[in-house]
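Practice problem 4.
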């Protein structure tokens, strides 16, 4: 038994089939045009290359930063060992100073490599990070140089203070020796007056007693006194020079003390009783002339 609307049903079926096929063709065609294009694959390859480059740059930064961190820790350890070392142990201090210089040279080398690496980096954040680290380490090197210079000045001032103490002790000892020698020379009685010629012809002069014998300071004693005086004058001039060197370079007090020391040394050189003292005064004058910016010697004339 056939339905009465069979023709209408067939028409509706064909209409539905055509509409369904049309609905399928639209997404299938869009998918074909979208996925058949190579732009997506190229974008994926570009993103993958950028990711690999980012990881490579991060690995370079981590390597450089780890090296710099180790060098900083090594510097801190060396500074701690130097602070525990006695100032008189020059061998250990020299070894630590050499180690510090080698460590700073390695830091400079690592910073140079980091700068070269940052020049080829493509990620702006990585370049900015490397630039910040380079700037911080430039400040570190500047402050480190200032600290080393101040430490050298401190050691120099300490050595000068020790030299001043030693010179003051030698000066006091020399003054005591001069006082003793002068006391010995003054304690001896003066020479007895010579007898008149007539009295000498009449009777021989009485032999003086040992306690009343003419006694004057010997030549060696006088020479020793003069030499000690020269040493005292030289020590005072050298102390004045050391005090002047303790002041800041270019200051008025430093120049004034050095000028006074130079004048005193010139007097010591002129009144020197021995050639050795004269040579010592000339050497000290040469160093003072260098500090004052004057020519050391010119045909023997200062």
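Answer key:
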């Amino acid at each position: 038994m056939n339905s009465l609307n069979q023709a209408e049903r067939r028409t509706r079926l064909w209409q539905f089939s055509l509409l369904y096929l049309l609905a399928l063709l639209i997404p299938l065609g869009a998918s074909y045009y979208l996925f058949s294009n190579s732009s997506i694959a190229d974008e994926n390859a570009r993103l993958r290359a950028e990711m690999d480059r980012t990881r490579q740059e991060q690995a370079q930064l981590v390597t450089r930063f780890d090296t710099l961190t180790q060098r900083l820790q090594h510097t801190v350890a060396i500074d701690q060992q130097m602070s525990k070392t006695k100032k008189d142990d020059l061998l250990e201090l020299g070894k630590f100073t050499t180690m510090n210089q080698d460590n700073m040279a390695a830091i400079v080398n690592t910073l140079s490599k980091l700068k070269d690496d940052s020049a080829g980096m493509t990620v702006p954040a990585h370049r900015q990070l490397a630039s910040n680290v380079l700037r911080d380490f430039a400040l570190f090197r500047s402050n480190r140089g200032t600290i080393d210079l101040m430490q050298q000045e401190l050691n120099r001032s300490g050595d000068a203070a020790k030299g001043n103490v030693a010179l003051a002790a030698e000066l006091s000892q020399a003054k005591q020796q001069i006082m003793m020698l002068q006391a010995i020379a003054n304690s001896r009685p003066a020479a007895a007056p010579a007898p008149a010629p007539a009295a000498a012809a009449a009777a021989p002069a009485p032999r003086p007693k040992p306690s009343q014998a003419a006694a004057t300071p010997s030549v060696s004693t006088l020479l020793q006194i003069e030499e000690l005086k020269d040493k005292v004058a030289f020590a005072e001039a050298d102390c004045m020079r050391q005090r002047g060197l303790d002041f800041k370079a270019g200051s008025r007090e430093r120049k004034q003390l050095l000028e006074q020391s130079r004048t005193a040394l010139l007097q010591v050189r002129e009144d020197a009783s021995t050639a050795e003292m004269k040579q010592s005064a000339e050497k000290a004058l040469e160093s003072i002339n260098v500090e004052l910016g004057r020519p050391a010697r010119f045909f023997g004339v200062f």
